[in-house]
Q: What sequence folds into this?
């Protein structure tokens, strides 16, 4: 029996989506302004304000900011109104702050939650190597094998040829060899400067145009993605892959085994997990926030619960004529934007 037996008696993700909608609306005002911090701060403020209304006794286990030196919901911060189940919470108010600042695609606001004590704590690991696939291929992946070996097995599991697979890879210098290896077997590559939570989400959902996520990205993003992948019954494996000198030194001093594979049930140990994400900038999977003086604000979100396997795509329409739950500053910004 799982030690995490006291589960929420409701789909908490339906409440958490209000949190990501608030963050997305507040951040979207700063799309394309060229400043990563201002949009991130607006999203943090809105996310924190709406989290105070959610019926849970939560603690932030994964919070952005320490790696990016950005405004954040900090690790260990209490969230929720204190009523309801004890929960671990992982947040990224703006995944893809550079995407938001530049006005490019696939910036999202995202949150995940699972029973208290069930979420893996990265501590000093800031980066991890990841592979993510949908349910049909989850039993054939092995992160220690070469990209070619994995792609051959994934293609067979999906009843495809390798050249029909599309692999989501972050466009980083560290992935030069990975990109060469993927191309050597004829698979297609979708390169992105940021946003591997979105990449993992797309890889775990059939029919999105992305079949696999490979490569090294942020550890916080990896744990958040794991909640979504587990809820989708997809496959995910990860390994610590330190990139920064301080990170390497601390991990070496602690004697952490870099060859240890982290499976989906290591990253999220509870059977139930909740995930919600809302598009900020226009994306290939989630549309961005749209402002209109007549129609108000439109948002597009995905909501997932592991226990039931339910997946909801939600289009929200939010009135600008009254103060909603998005925080005073966020709504003021939205009204100003709509009137321009």
A:
């Amino acid at each position: 029996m799982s030690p995490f037996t006291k589960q929420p008696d409701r789909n908490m993700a339906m409440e958490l989506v209000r949190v990501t909608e608030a963050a997305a609306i507040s951040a979207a005002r700063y799309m394309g302004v060229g400043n990563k911090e201002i949009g991130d701060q607006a999203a943090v403020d809105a996310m924190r304000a709406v989290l105070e209304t959610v019926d849970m006794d939560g603690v932030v286990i994964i919070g952005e900011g320490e790696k990016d030196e950005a405004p954040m919901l900090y690790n260990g911060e209490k969230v929720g109104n204190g009523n309801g189940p004890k929960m671990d919470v992982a947040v990224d108010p703006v995944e893809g702050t550079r995407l938001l600042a530049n006005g490019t695609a696939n910036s999202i606001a995202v949150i995940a939650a699972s029973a208290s004590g069930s979420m893996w704590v990265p501590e000093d690991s800031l980066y991890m190597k990841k592979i993510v696939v949908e349910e049909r291929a989850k039993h054939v992946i092995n992160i220690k094998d070469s990209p070619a070996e994995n792609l051959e097995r994934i293609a067979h599991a999906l009843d495809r040829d390798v050249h029909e697979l599309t692999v989501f890879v972050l466009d980083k210098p560290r992935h030069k060899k990975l990109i060469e290896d993927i191309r050597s077997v004829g698979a297609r590559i979708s390169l992105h400067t940021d946003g591997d939570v979105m990449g993992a989400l797309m890889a775990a959902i059939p029919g999105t145009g992305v079949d696999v996520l490979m490569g090294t990205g942020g550890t916080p993003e990896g744990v958040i993605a794991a909640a979504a992948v587990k809820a989708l019954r997809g496959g995910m494996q990860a390994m610590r892959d330190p990139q920064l000198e301080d990170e390497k030194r601390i991990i070496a001093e602690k004697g952490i085994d870099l060859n240890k594979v982290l499976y989906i049930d290591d990253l999220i140990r509870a059977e139930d997990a909740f995930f919600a994400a809302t598009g900020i900038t226009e994306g290939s999977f989630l549309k961005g926030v749209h402002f209109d003086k007549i129609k108000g604000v439109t948002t597009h979100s995905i909501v997932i619960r592991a226990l039931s396997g339910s997946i909801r795509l939600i289009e929200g329409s939010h009135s600008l004529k009254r103060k909603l739950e998005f925080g005073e500053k966020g709504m003021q910004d939205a009204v100003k934007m709509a009137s321009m």
Notes: The two ends are 57 Å apart (CA to CA). The first strand starts at residue 57 and ends at 62.
